[in-house]
Structures are given as structure tokens and as C-alpha cells.
Amino acid sequence: MTATYTFDVFSSLDGYGAHTGDWGGYWGKQGPEFLENRLAQYSEKQRMVFGATTFRTNMEMLNAEILDFEALDPWVARLKHLPATVVSATLREPLDWPDATVVSGDAVDVVARLKEESDVPLRSHGSLAMNRALMAAGLVDRVQVTVFPVITGQTGAGSIFQGAADFDLELLESRTFDGHIQELVYRPVPHKSI
């Protein structure tokens, strides 16, 4: 049996994973139900998979001098303590991350091997280009999109699915947190022309 791979991403309603505006983290829309759910998801046994750019961003954020470490959301602090595989041709070990391994090579080959060998589920938060390639290769079992109630037409950055292949999506789960944040979990199936 192969390990399940989840592509986990935050999104504005118009499909951006980040912004260049003054919204703040989570576009300023987080609430206690959302944060509690994130901590529960990241407290489960799993292996994180990152592309180099997303890993560098996370490492900079989590290794920065923080005046009050308690200010980090607990799920974000937990993220650093999960085992991680980083697909990169440029990063070298040792990394300033407790349990991260760098694997060079094509992400499709690396993740296909991980899916066969891992005894825990695999999850990737962010790493947009890598995950679009993994979807195209049929390696993504679940796409978990958390939609925040904003439209970032002027300040949106990181179009999540721009350049991706066409997929039909089978809805597996949907939840609402704090009355306005939607978590949608889909099984992606390559779209076949009629």
C-alpha cells in the first residue's frame, strides 16, 4: 500500500496563495476553530514534503529571532518538528531543522519513491510548482484547499493552479471554521476530453 499524499494550500477566493498587501497572516481572517483544526492536523504522524523555495521560507520564518516564541501559532511551531523531505538541487545538509533530509532529483521520482516507502501519510504545505508537477504525474491523492473569505485582485501573489493541468475534482470533505473559512478536500482526477 502506498502512502497518501496531500497537497495542502491556503487560498484567497480568487486562487492566490499569498498577497503583497497589508492583510497580515491568513489575510487577517483566522479564528480559534481554524487554528485548533490546523494543530490537530499537524499533530498527526506524517512526513512533510517541501520544494526548496518553500522550505527556505519556512526555515527563515521559524529560525528567525522571535522576541516571543509563544507568538507563533502552535501548528506552525509543530510543523518544524515533523520529519521532512526537501526536494532540492541547491540545499545541502546539515539544515537548521530537527528532522529534515535533502533529496536531489526530480520531485516526481522522489515523491513516487516516498509514497512506496513511507509508513506515514505525506503532506506538503505550499510548494506550488512542485505540487502542480506532482498532480500532473498522478501522485497527489488529496488537494486540501483552505479558502479565506477575501478577493485579492490587486495584491494577490502565487496563483495556486496557474499552469496546472486540467482536473476534475471529487469532493471528499468540506468544513467551515469560525463561520467563514472553508476547508475543501478533493481527490484530483485528470480531466479527459469528451
Descriptive account of the structure:
The chain has 194 residues and is of the alpha/beta class. Helix content is 26%, strand content 31%. It contains 5 helices and 10 strands. It has helices at 32-43, 52-63, 74-79, 107-117, 128-136, and strands at residues 5-12, 16-19, 47-51, 84-87, 100-103, 122-125, 142-148, 156-159, 167-177, 181-190. The strands form 2 sheets. An 8-stranded mixed sheet has the order 5-4-3-6-1-7-10-9. It has a two-stranded antiparallel sheet with strand order 2-8. A hairpin with a 3-residue loop joins strand 9 (167-177) and strand 10. The relative contact order is 0.26.
Question: What's the short version?
Answer:
With 194 residues, the chain is an alpha/beta fold. The chain is 26% helix and 31% strand.
Keywords, separated by commas or semicolons:
194 residues, alpha/beta, eight-stranded mixed β-sheet, 5 helices, 10 strands
Secondary structure: elements and pairs:
Blueprint (H helix, E strand, L loop, with lengths): L4 E8 L3 E4 L12 H12 L3 E5 H12 L10 H6 L4 E4 L12 E4 L3 H11 L4 E4 L2 H9 L5 E7 L7 E4 L7 E11 L3 E10 L4
Parallel strand pairs: 1-6, 1-7, 3-4, 3-6, 4-5
Antiparallel strand pairs: 2-8, 7-10, 9-10
Average of the residue pLDDT scores: 93
Give the overall form: globular
The main pleated sheet reads as: 8 strands, mixed
- The amount of helix comes to 25-40%
The ordered H/E elements are EEHEHHEEHEHEEEE
Low-confidence stretches: none
Strand order of the largest sheet: 5-4-3-6-1-7-10-9
Structural class: alpha/beta
What percentage of amino acids are in beta strands? 25-35%
